[in-house]
């Protein structure tokens, strides 16, 4: 399989990605724990079938010291005992926010209330933005078939 286009090498794509990446940096500078952001980005990427983002976020999390057992269990987080209540609330929010069309009313009140128990308004704003942005990244990469496997932690930091 080959990528359809490398958006980063086009004038428009390069400009757009730099701005999207800048939003990601704002999110990662928020008060939401990095571990939670990494788990959320990984889970949404798994759901959306984005190989590049799944590769990137699992490698970035591992480089930051995340345990491989936890990373391997993200896809089955409901049945795993290795996640905190805050992480579980964030993963539920990420799943419902990613599968928004699958639910009659988007994110359920129950899931939102669980997230509110663990995150203040600023953190919720960052978490919701993180979910929206990773879904945008996933869609861009899936549409153009960005290939997975070659990502190295930090390789996008210079953008």
Automatic annotation (TrEMBL):
Gene3D superfamilies, per the entry: AhpD-like
Q: Which SUPFAM superfamilies does the entry link to? A: AhpD-like
| Matches recorded under Pfam families | CMD
What InterPro entries does the entry give?
Answer: AhpD-like, AhpD_core, CMD-like
Please, which domain of life does this record's source organism belong to? Bacteria
What positions does the domain Carboxymuconolactone decarboxylase-like occupy? 24-96
What NCBIfam families does the record point to?
Answer: ahpD_dom
* Protein name per the record: Carboxymuconolactone decarboxylase family protein
